[in-house]
């Protein structure tokens, strides 16, 4: 019987083979997606292990430590350059990480292959000063990814200690976990959940492709004496042929796509292809589960049918879907918000549980839409039937009313893609707003700020060096004083020429330089560009220790509130350096330097090189450079966008298969109608209307629902109220256009299959 | 039980065109499918209001002849003229329009759209021809009592007997006021009583409306409703009714 099942599946005619191949392809895509999902955490762990040596958590007493280490995130253009400055302290027996040929001496460096290549390509003054003398290359076991830019720089221990180098016992061999922002992690979980739904739709649609023929075949076998059990076994064997082939194809697809997937960056690093490996146990369980689900699906489908020797009968005519079908989607949305609320609120519930719950609830929303879809299709079909004027709209409307499940099944993949896209675009609109916030408020275009860490005094010499760089228009050193109230540091005052500050700050023009030389410049810019004053009245009227100034009575109070987004970027006071005595000024170290440039990447890299060469522990940020958290969003956004393209592609395949199947099911009627004079245009209109009407209606609802979910998540997770913009309509229109394009592609073959000349075969 | 409308037995006109000119004629038709020559030079003519039975064994070429006459198939050679104009050289769009407006069709079974009600099925050709839905349904409804289908307007094909479904198909063929109805084994799936009812209604209504009917059948009882018979054998016409 197994052999017969294999023969029937593999040699059951062209239709059967097409159905088999489509199902196998769908299973293969699903399997590959799941294998990639399973590989995600191991790949992260691999990355953590490779980068553990840069960690500083093996803290030790300075006296007994063997190493001073200072990891600094730098940039070359828009690429991240990880600089790890090291100095041996002589204590203990220092084991080098595998891949580091030797500990670099002061001024020496070991670089990653990608950085070595960049050094060879770039002009010397952009990069070399902050790297030093290259002694060799780092091994891949020290790198997060093949294209990572890393340099290990040697430094004198005394100097590094002064530059905030951290004393550690040894190079770490275990890493702290990847620090993804909570919303970023949430997005990854939701995207993974969302990716599976269209695959499931494709599998179910592809399975329907040859269902009718298979059922007739099984009935014929019953006629010649096969028992119901034998028929069930045949159905299982046929299903397993698809799932076994699909699982094998999934493994091949996984291996084939791995190098491409490895190029997708996360946290500023791509991946080592070899590191993308699913854990064997879960991978095996997945492959077995695919087979079990395939076999169970075949048996379940059999239960709905009575296959008799005289043909196939449905056990019962399915009742029309009811309005209660919307309840699961509503319940899932409530559960999703609750889970996110728990996740964000902390409390006793472990974050893994609340995050997992959010993922399941999000999947529930998607499945809920799939569950409610047939009812919505029925409603749309009834409405269309009421207003139908022509034959095509009548045929389409009746089909929607009669077969709401299969009609929705055809468009389900696209609907889900619309939902995911609209939820994501709501996020993305928010993150783009954030990306343009803090740095844009602080720095003008082309602006750079260098925070100079460490205790070594920095004089005006550094700024002099910066000022003479071509492309630099201003370099303003900032000295800082703490405003102390009792024992607490209550704010900061910047000692700088007020006019200089106005020249290098994004909204500096709005700072009013006070005549007495002390400006209430703790102005913080709000998102709409207006300035507000902090109202910490206690700050006003105290002495400034060490520099001989007293603010008593010098500043007017203000009732305005500060903007929390920019507190910390701007001072509370600006103290004109000209009012300080020279010795008082000399006692203050430069803590940051603001640089105005022409904005070119090369000039900014030269600024970085000068600053880093002078103070290796500095943190330099350019206006054009996205903040780390926003960059993460951008990367995840790119991943989700790629996922959406894949989702739409899969949904398009599902739609094409479903439209073809649905038309072929009615081929006989269409051939008769066309023989009786139905124009090909009417056939086209019928097929298009059948897909377009529910698609437009349900996709709009789905997009609104996605926006509600996206906005709700942001409201719960980030207390941000967002209003979806025009991109929502764009998502709907694009999806409907793609779907209609797919349907149009199916029309020529369908026209051929239903042309009147086919009548002689009916 | 449905009461059938009492229709007069069709009067049998003289063979050939009562008005002296055939409404539909074919000359020297040839049609080949691969290596099989289905038609080998058939001539055929039918007059306005005439009922012609095309008889023959399975595979003799009778359905192919019907398809060529109706403009469904294009003959490889020969001509088909309808109302004095050639139709075999029209493009598919024009032939579709012709079939929709001037011809009616009744097939053996499965021609009704299962999702549509009987009324919608009958009005479908009118809707496809651009007639307003209200008007189309009014015109369709008028055929129900005439064909003994009273009360079945809202029924779906799946809820009707084979005979009822075939009468709905006859109504659909007649609703556009065609000049010619083509019936391909119209009683092939019916028992003899239902088959007789369908034939009586088809031929009676056609005669009333002055519609010509081409019936393809291998049943002599069905052919008996025709004014004359054309026998097709190996792609050639023979018999007393051959043109």
Short structural summary:
The complex is a heterodimer of chains A (762) and B (243). Chain A is α+β, with helices and mostly antiparallel strands and 762 residues long.
Could you describe the 3D structure shown?
The complex is a heterodimer of chains A (762) and B (243). By secondary structure, chain A is an alpha+beta fold. Chain A has 22 helices and 19 strands. Chain A has a seven-stranded mixed beta sheet with strand order 12-17-11-10-18-9-19. A six-stranded mixed beta sheet of chain A has the order 4-3-5-2-1-6. Chain A has a two-stranded antiparallel ribbon with strand order 7-8. In chain A, helix 1 (2-10) crosses helix 8 (228-261), helix 11 packs across helix 13 (404-435) and helix 13 packs across helix 21 (680-718). Residues 516-542 and 552-566 of chain A have low confidence and may be disordered. Chain B has seven helices and ten strands. Chain B has helices at 62-69, 92-102, 118-128, 133-146, 162-174, 192-209, 220-223, and strands at 22-33, 36-47, 51-55, 77-82, 85-86, 103-106, 180-184, 212-217, 228-233, 236-238. Helices cover 33% and strands 25% of the residues of chain B. The model of chain B is unreliable at 1-18 (pLDDT under 50). The radius of gyration of chain B is 17 Å and the shape is globular. By secondary structure, chain B is α/β, with parallel strands linked by helices. Chains A and B meet through helix 12 and helix 20 of A and helix 1, helix 2, strand 6 and helix 3 of B.
